[in-house]
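BUG-399 | component: ligand-complex export | severity: low

The export step for zinc ion jobs runs without errors, but we want the raw record kept on the ticket for reference. Input record follows.
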Amino acid sequence: MSAFNQAVVLDLIRRSEAGMSRVELIGATGLSTQTVSNIARRLLDLGLIVESGKVHVPQGKPRTTLTIDPKSRYAVGAHLDPSVLTFVLLDLAGTVVHRKHLPVEAVAGPEETVDKIATAIEELISETDTPRERVLGVGIAAPGPIEFDQGAVVGPPMLIGWKRVELRESLGKATGYPVFLDKDSAAAAHAELWVRDNRSDENFAFVYLGSGVGAAVVMNGEVVRGSSNNVGEIGHFSTGDGGRVCGCGRTGCLGVSVMPVQLVNDSVNRGILQGPLDTADLRQVTDHFHKLASLADAGDEKAGALLHEAAGRLARAVEDIANLLDVDGIVFGGPSWPPIGDRYLEVLHAALANRLAMGMIHEVELLGSALGEDITAVGAACIVLDHALSPRSGGLMLE
Ligand SMILES: [Zn+2]
């Protein structure tokens, strides 16, 4: 029995809210009665699906409905950001059953951090009484660029002491699970695709705001990979004249225009927030960033102006992204998005209303992701589920 056919059948059952009968599966797949029957038997034996009821039909025997058993398998998602370590446990239906955040102080040198990540993953599993063998694997999202094939992060910015770290291998050893490493922005795009039901007609760009900035591209329902799986390194996109000086020597690069550490630094310099600020203290940076957003929301004009300026610069980069890709929408999200999202969207809508080249042809929707600050960890877990469930990957992880 081909693993591909099995994955196709499981995928159909998973996507149908009410479940499917064997007769419906035969109709939807074109597979023979015998093949569908064998696959259903196998999926029942593996515990992945259950017989959840009977549907009466006008003629013939009542049909047994097959539905997925969400509690039969789980996936762990982890997000490594310089200022936040997030963990989620997803069930087979993609529902978050448990989540965990470690304080920024937990991010230290690579070896120590990997140990802490492995411990947090064990806790995530044990605190929910999840049988260890039901966990398919661990997805981990980290700042790019990454060496995808080697599963390594390469000099992630703001992670002190991290040069080239083979995160996939070390975390695999520490946890005993298969580990998938991907970029934070790509993971976030995976999560967004999952909540949209992985539809094959999705075309959008995802703009990711965390400690830094990145992007991912979804075309025809797939996250575009590029030649080294590093699509979306937009930190040095130009946002127009002037602006802050970037580490690369130019001014007005997107990264330095929207990064929380730069915005709170400017806030202190402009007297909006009280100094002194230790920019290496990422907890302080995060707290200050939230304070800046709250001040703007409360009507502080200087705070509002500073965020307006940042959003305006973001709009310049988004214009280029939209014009290059001809997507239906740009989705914004990531851990730094929720506090300033509504404000940025207002500026983005106004700035881009008549600016996009394809504006006469079709609408380009600008919207904030509904997934909140845990989106990246959720996406990392979705990558594991994709490997397990998608017909493309053959569903071999379920054997
Ligand atoms: Zn730059």
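Assignee comment: Attached the raw record above. The chain has three domains: 3-68, 72-191+376-398, 234-327+335-368.
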